[in-house]
């Protein structure tokens, strides 16, 4: 199904919102959604630790 959804998105037949609605009910994982729309950080809930910079 990934290839079909990717084709539909690439041709503009479906929007990001429509595609997101396919996760997970229509056999599309969040990772596959991210690959299709090219957004590696979509729906990522982990945050990167921040580094403090001491001033001298």
Q: Can you tell me about this structure?
A:
- With 56 residues, the chain is mostly helical.
- It has three helices and no strands.
The total of helices stands at 3
Kindly name the structural category.
mainly alpha
Roughly what is the average pLDDT, rounded to an integer? 79
Unreliable stretches covering 5 or more consecutive residues: 42-48
Please state roughly what percent of the residues sit in beta strands, choosing from under 5%, 5-15%, 15-25%, 25-35%, 35-45% or over 45%: under 5%
Terminal CA distance reads 56 Å
Which bin fits the share of residues in helices? 40-55%
String of helices and strands:
HHH
Rg is: 16 Å
Strands, total number: 0
Largest sheet: none
Shape: elongated
Write the layout of secondary structure elements.
Layout: H1 2-10, H2 16-21, H3 30-37
Provide a compact summary of the structure:
This protein is 41% helix and 0% strand. The chain has 3 helices and no strands.
Label this structure with key terms.
41% helix, mainly alpha
């Amino acid at each position: 199904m990934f290839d079909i959804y990717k084709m539909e998105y690439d041709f503009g037949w479906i929007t990001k919102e429509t595609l997101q609605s396919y996760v997970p009910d229509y056999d599309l994982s969040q990772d596959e959604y991210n690959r299709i729309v090219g957004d590696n950080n979509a729906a990522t809930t982990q945050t990167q630790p921040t580094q403090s910079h001491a001033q001298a």
